[in-house]
Design goal:
GO terms for molecular function: metal ion binding. The protein is built from 10 helices and 12 strands. The chain has 367 residues and is of the alpha/beta class. α8 links the parallel β11 and β12 (327-330).
Length: 367
């Protein structure tokens, strides 16, 4: 279990998402990324309020928060963020909190988790620790550099097969986001940050969050331990479901018509991932990228192209129209939630089960 970075203390405060004045004395945990919000909510249960600093539909990548977001963090009892370099704005926020309110608990959820290399890097494992679950460590699923093994933030908002995921148009990366790779956290260097798509690595983050939040004076560590264990068991069940459902397939490769965010899924469950572009979700495919994707469709007899929900589905539609592929399907690395998912109260597990798994089963041709 990775160790959280924390400073213990209690500050009364109840905050809504990016708002609130702490007037009712509740214990509040603020988070910088949707997956972390969901993990924290499952860990704290009724013991505290876990809130997102980032509005619904926003990634928190390349996004510049308002002054209210900084105030919300300063008024909280704990802040959970991914780790340095993932969201530059969150890094700055955490430094300000540590300087001005050192009593607030800070949890680096990614601490100690072994990261895969970014596509194109030869060093495959281990940028943050040696805590990979191990069951699949010796298998290189979807991480050879010649496949460009994609981890794109797959289409969490396009209109796929009649479902309105909340992002039909091409202004996909949330209004107000600015995508300069040098500043927006997408230039991730030699490691792939999307570890949470592997439920076993997700379990490690849950344990780190549990460890850090248990240092808050206002909550019972015993209650958090029970909640965290229940959630880790649910993640084990999710992992087993993916393994059993994807065990026997007609093909061993998928094509993502977007950026490269899914290699943890491929590595965990034994299939190759090909993508149009690299790690930056706002990258535009070149004609060479499109030609390579068309060749991939032909080579692997791909019938369904995967389209990241929070990205434009234009490329996916083009590939379907110009090849033998039949349709495109939604997939997501869960950088955020759509309004529809939020209304259904879907968290990480529900999105993995209801969006990613059905699309992967169809794309891989489950027997």
């Amino acid at each position: 279990m990775g160790t959280a970075l924390f400073a213990s203390g209690t500050i009364a405060g109840c905050l809504g998402s990016s708002s609130g004045d702490g007037s009712d004395g509740s214990t509040t945990v603020q988070t910088s990324f949707f997956v972390l919000t969901d993990f924290a909510r499952n860990v704290v249960g009724d013991a505290a309020n876990a809130e997102s600093l980032v509005p619904i539909g926003q990634h928190g990548h390349g996004w510049e928060p308002s002054a209210q977001v900084q105030r919300d963090a300063m008024q909280s009892d704990a802040v959970v963020y991914m780790g340095e370099g993932f969201q530059p704005w969150a890094d700055r926020m955490v430094k300000n909190v540590e300087q001005d309110r050192p009593e607030i608990t800070i949890v680096e959820a990614r601490h100690g988790i072994s990261l895969l290399s970014a596509p194109g890097h030869s060093d495959e494992h281990g940028h943050e620790g040696d805590n990979h679950d191990g069951e699949h460590e010796e298998e290189n699923h979807g991480n050879e550099t010649d496949h460009g093994h994609e981890e794109g933030e797959h289409n969490d908002g396009d209109n796929h097969e009649g479902e309105n995921h909340g992002n039909e148009n091409d202004t996909n990366h949330e209004e107000g986001e600015h995508h300069d790779e040098s500043e927006n956290g997408h230039d991730h260097g030699a490691s792939d940050p999307h570890f949470w798509l592997d439920p076993q690595r997700a379990k490690q983050a849950v344990s780190t969050i549990e460890s850090g939040l248990s240092e808050m004076d206002a909550v019972s560590g015993e209650a958090l331990t029970g909640n965290a264990e229940d959630f880790r068991n649910q993640l084990d069940e999710l992992d087993s479901t993916f393994e059993s459902e994807l065990e026997s397939t007609e093909r061993n490769a998928v094509l993502v018509a977007g950026h490269n965010a899914f290699q943890y899924l491929g590595e965990r469950y034994g299939f190759e991932i090909h993508a149009l572009t690299g790690l930056a979700p706002d990258s535009s495919p070149s004609p060479k990228d499109v030609q390579r994707a068309q060749n991939t469709i032909e080579e692997h007899d791909i019938t369904h192209v995967l389209a990241p929900v929070f990205e434009s589905d234009r490329a996916a539609k083009q590939l379907v129209s110009e090849t033998d592929a039949k349709d495109h399907l939604p997939i997501t690395p869960i950088p955020s939630v759509t309004e529809e998912w939020s209304e259904k109260d879907w968290g990480y597990i529900e999105i993995m089960e209801q969006v990613n798994l059905p699309s992967l089963k169809t794309a891989l041709g489950v027997k």
